[in-house]
Amino acid sequence: MRNGWDDEQLLGALREAMRARQAVPSWFVAMGKNAYAWHNIDAELAQLTYDSQADTEQLAFVRSETASIRALTFTSAHLSLELEVGEDSLLGQVIPPQAGTLETYTKAGLTSTPVDESGYFAVEPIPAGPFRLRFHTSDGADVVTGWTTL
Amino acid sequence: MRDDPAVVALVARAAASDQGAWDEIVDRYAPLVWSICNGFRLSTHDIEDVAQSVWLLLVGQLGTLREPAALPGWLATTTRRECLRVVTVARKSERLGTELDEAAQFVADTVVDEEILAAERNAALRAAFAELPPRCQQLLSMLLRDPPCPYGTISATLDIPIGSIGPQRARCLERIRKSSALIGLVEVGVNLPGGDPDA
């Protein structure tokens, strides 16, 4: 493209640039743009570090009993959120235990749940689609999970 | 690449709560993130997971990116790391063997530098195209089709004589060569063979 590119090469490069853009699905771009809603929300990202469903598949040949409770753990540098999927609610605990507020974000919007001094909380009903949890306290702890689907 | 003024300005505006600047960053670099995810052969679900993490990490770091101009490199590295995380989780649950390990490592180790350079070049070319007057955009769009529109069709659609398509095409391409987007790219040497080793 530097002066060495003739018209045909430049057209070829343009065609490639447009093709690379068109190969990207619109939902993928929209997802990136929507992430900006989190700008200025000063929460630390907690990653999914444990999912019992992944482990049960692995252990299926050892244990024959099924119906174990699905458990997930999200971990950030400062605290963890431990979740158990109950029948009609999502039960969780903040580790280390502390009181605060838990917000559940879904495509439909936001609901708030109190977290007691032992760090326990319950989210009802269980989010049907993708959701993320944000835990924050009055003294500045603020952690958010990535989007998760159960 | 690390001095690309357009990228530095976009990052600064996005950090200052300009959604339009953020959208432009995503438009520019979504193809880079997408192509890296595809290199790892992730499922759609895992690609969503990776993309969410990557863009959220970037949103969280807009104000503190040490080198805003190195954004494409940061995005490539972060995407690659997130893909490896997802692949590792999948391997743990599915007990896939060394084959996936090796594939992931191969993808992680190669191509990325070229991908960053190609992504920068493509983003600059698209930006240059977007700066063109509408007439030029129409003409080049028709020529960029695969296969390109016949001159007869272009002449009828744009209402210009066939004989002036060639000269107009040359003028439009010359505008692209002289656009600030491409000049910025040339100044920082993105299209040099091998590119910037620190990028």
Briefly characterize the structure:
The complex is a heterodimer of chains A (150) and B (199). By secondary structure, chain A is of the alpha+beta class. Chain A contains three helices and nine strands.
Protein described:
The complex is a heterodimer of chains A (150) and B (199). The model of chain A has no long low-confidence stretch (mean pLDDT 85). Chain A has 2 domains: 1-40; 43-145, Immunoglobulin-like (Sandwich), CATH 2.60.40. Chain A is built from 3 helices and 9 strands. Chain A is elongated and about 70 Å long. Chain A is of the alpha+beta class and 150 residues long. Chain B has 199 residues and is an all-alpha fold. Chain B has a domain at 1-124. The interface between A and B is large, with 41 and 53 residues.
Fill in the keyword field for this structure.
heterodimer, A: 150 residues, alpha+beta, Immunoglobulin-like, 2 domains, nine-stranded mixed sheet, 3 helices, 9 strands, 22% helix, B: 199 residues, mainly alpha, 73% helix, disordered C terminus
> How far is the first residue's CA from the last residue's CA of chain A?
48 Å
Shape of chain A: elongated
CATH class of the largest domain in chain A: Mainly Beta
The largest chain-to-chain contact, stated as pair and per-chain residue counts, equals: A-B, 41 and 53 residues
The proportion of residues forming helix of chain B, as a percent range, comes to over 70%
Order of helices and strands of chain A: HHEHEEEEEEEE
Q: What can be said about the biggest beta sheet of chain B? A: none
Distance between the termini of chain B: 7 Å
Number of helices of chain B: 10
